[in-house]
């Protein structure tokens, strides 16, 4: 496995790390996986050699560059769920989704991404999304806005009628006056779609911190709302009870509307 170094943990340097890991570990496996390089953690929940190796590389490199931080990724938690308790207790942490949209990746779809968030006392303070096939980088720092390939992002207008992307059945989630569409099965694509105004809201059941910490920060930086269906705010470092529904909206008005679903 390739080894990487990180001279500093500036936002730009960390983005460069994601790009290098994608170029050396993820991209060479895209549409080139053998059967032995794909497994299922549970039916339909894929993990590949690209997931495992990229997470190991990012974890090792971030830990070396910022030794005081707790670094954890999706695949590490799959192996040891108790790591989520350590995340909840950590004052400073990095949360990694090394290959979001693995199912898409396995099927040869360009819609996959790398997600990374820095947390302080459970709250996201920086977030990175890198879509290697689309060559799209979205980064955010708390209080400093969002950049999309280096250009500042402004809040988009709401569609008429508003729409919400969800992976849930409309039997369980069907807000009035809002068009329900399917997600892209990749939070690292869904959140940039919302930031760009393609969709106005997102709804997910049982959110995981590696999927949502970065994107939630970006949405909030543009004035959006990220909270659970019961009205409580989303805090990425906090444990989530089974069955909880996360609602992500581009504006408070949209949040109020989807909250009726």
TrEMBL record:
Protein's UniProt keywords contain Repeat: no
SUPFAM superfamilies: Carbohydrate phosphatase
Residues annotated for Mg(2+) binding in this entry: 74, 97, 99-100, 211
GO terms under biological process: inositol metabolic process; phosphatidylinositol phosphate biosynthetic process; signal transduction
Reaction catalysed by this enzyme: a myo-inositol phosphate + H2O = myo-inositol + phosphate
MF terms (GO), sorted A to Z: inositol monophosphate 1-phosphatase activity; metal ion binding
Pfam families tied to this protein: Inositol_P
Keywords for this protein: Hydrolase, Magnesium, Metal-binding
Entry cofactors: Mg(2+)
Protein EC: 3.1.3.25
Highest taxon, organism lineage: Bacteria
Stretches assigned to coiled coil: none
Protein name, as recorded: inositol-phosphate phosphatase
Xref: InterPro entries: Inositol_monoP_metal-BS, Inositol_monophosphatase-like, Inositol_monophosphatase_CS
């Amino acid at each position: 496995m390739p080894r990487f170094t990180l001279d500093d943990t500036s936002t730009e340097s960390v983005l460069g790390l994601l790009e290098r890991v994608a170029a050396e570990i993820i991209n060479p496996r895209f549409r080139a996986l053998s059967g032995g390089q794909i497994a299922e953690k549970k039916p339909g929940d894929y993990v590949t050699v690209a997931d495992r190796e990229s997470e190991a590389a990012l974890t090792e490199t971030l830990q070396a560059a910022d030794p005081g931080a707790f670094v954890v990724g999706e695949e590490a938690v799959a192996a040891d769920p108790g790591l989520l308790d350590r995340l909840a207790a950590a004052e400073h942490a990095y949360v990694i989704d090394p290959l979001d949209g693995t199912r898409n990746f396995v099927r040869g779809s360009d819609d996959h991404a790398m997600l990374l968030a820095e947390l302080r006392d459970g709250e996201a303070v920086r977030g990175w999304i890198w879509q290697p096939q689309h060559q799209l980088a979205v980064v955010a720092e708390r209080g400093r806005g969002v950049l999309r390939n280096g250009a500042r992002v402004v809040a988009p207008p709401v569609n008429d009628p508003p729409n919400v992307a969800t992976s849930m059945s409309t039997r369980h989630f069907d807000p009035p006056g809002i068009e329900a569409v399917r997600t892209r099965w990749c939070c690292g694509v869904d959140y940039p779609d919302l930031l760009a105004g393609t969709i106005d809201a997102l709804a997910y059941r049982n959110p995981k911190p590696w999927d949502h910490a970065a994107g939630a920060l970006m949405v909030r930086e543009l004035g959006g709302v990220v909270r659970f269906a019961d009205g409580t705010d989303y805090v990425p470092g906090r444990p989530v009870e089974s069955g909880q529904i996360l609602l992500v909206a581009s504006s408070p008005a949209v949040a109020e509307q989807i909250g009726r679903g």
